[in-house]
Write a structure and sequence with these properties.
Keywords: Oxidoreductase. This is Glucose/ribitol dehydrogenase. InterPro entries: NAD(P)-bd_dom_sf, SDR_fam. This protein is an alpha/beta fold. It contains 13 helices and eight strands. It has an eight-stranded mixed β-sheet with strand order 3-2-1-4-5-6-7-8, sandwiched between helices. The longest helix is centred in the middle third of the chain and has 28 residues. It is globular, with a radius of gyration of 19 Å. About 2% of the residues have low confidence.
């Protein structure tokens, strides 16, 4: 009850920020970001677009990958209208396609730019069962597997940038508190919903993908520390906010639910605050493998803290991005 009251009031936590803090407020005292290059997935709407706008305000060079280039160009034009000196590069990327992820990284590397920040923000809530071109359940493919490969392929660039500039690189994985709704064997459940649509439940699929984001953060943090790389990775829960994730279910029921829960909802500037805080705030130098909500370190689910599960998912993901999914799921074929 006390935590709920603090949330509703926006009471600041140890960081000095809280649930009502906006992305602009957490970056108010930043040094100039004009030397920074940032890749933000999902920056064509909602939280991602606000994150991009605020980082542009602070001077960062933005790379906006997008499946819909027309919408991305519109976002670019909108940001440039407000901050004319911002350098913004729009590039094609479909996170549900591993081929597209590889193509994007090749094209980005050809630009010969540094890379200081990688914000894995894009998210999909698929109400209907779907399979990606690589044969993986669509929500997992978009929210997690595409970001896993993107991060893996960009890591060398981030490490070299940090070494050359002396500026610590940061990776931010945008998850969700919904990851706590799933308990069980993640890989077995993914196998079921990929192979048999009768097992598919949209919320469960979304929770699985967001738990995978948390576990990815844990294992990548361990590996970065082992490599002694000057790059950190952390995970964020942006909060409850009405974004494009609900656009396929407009109507009386959806509107009624959001009206009832409106006091718990954040505005988009508030929802983007934790991402911007974790990506940029000086206090978080060398902070690695943590989970944040309302601009403060928070606790996540028991399975989300399980280092063995994190390592298991990593090994599983390495195979998935390099071989056919049927071979990966073979041990679960009798599940």
């Amino acid at each position: 009850m006390l935590d709920t009251v603090k949330y509703l009031l926006g009471s600041p936590g140890p960081s000095g920020f809280g649930s009502k803090t906006t992305a602009e407020q957490v970056t108010d005292h930043l040094v100039d970001l004009r030397s920074f290059t940032v890749i933000i997935t999902g920056a064509t709407s909602g939280i991602g677009a606000e994150t991009a706008r605020v980082l542009a305000k602070r001077g960062a060079r933005l790379v906006i990958p997008a499946r819909n280039l027309k919408v991305a160009e519109e976002i670019k034009a909108r940001i440039l209208q407000e901050f004319r000196d911002t350098e913004i590069i729009v590039m094609p990327l479909d996170l549900s396609s591993l081929k597209s992820v590889r193509r994007f990284v090749t094209q980005f590397e050809a630009l010969d730019l540094p890379l200081n920040l990688l914000i894995n923000n894009a998210g999909k809530f698929a109400y209907d069962h779907g399979i990606s071109e690589d044969g993986v359940e669509m929500t997992f493919a978009t929210n997690y597997l595409g970001h896993f490969l993107l991060t893996k392929l960009l890591l060398k660039k981030m490490i070299s940038t940090a070494k050359t500039t002396g500026i610590q690189g940061r990776i931010v994985n945008v998850s969700s508190g919904i990851h706590t709704w799933f308990s069980g064997d993640l890989i077995r459940s993914l196998s079921q919903i990929t192979r048999d649509k009768s097992h598919y439940d949209a919320t469960r699929a979304y929770a699985i993908s967001k738990l995978a984001n948390v576990l990815h953060t844990k294992e990548l943090a361990r590996r970065l520390q082992q490599m002694e790389a000057n790059v950190t990775v952390n995970c964020v829960h942006p909060g409850i906010v009405r974004t494009g994730l609900t656009r396929d279910r407009e109507g009386f029921i959806t509107d009624f639910v959001f009206m009832i829960t409106s006091k718990l909802l954040k505005t988009i500037p508030q929802a983007a605050a934790t991402t911007c805080y974790v990506a940029t705030h000086p206090e978080l130098r060398n902070v690695n493998g943590k989970y944040f909500a309302d601009c403060n370190e928070a606790s996540n689910s028991e399975i989300g803290c399980n280092l063995k599960e994190a390592a298991r998912l990593w090994s599983f993901s390495e195979i998935m991005v390099s071989t056919d999914w049927k071979a990966v799921f073979a041990p679960f074929s009798t599940a």
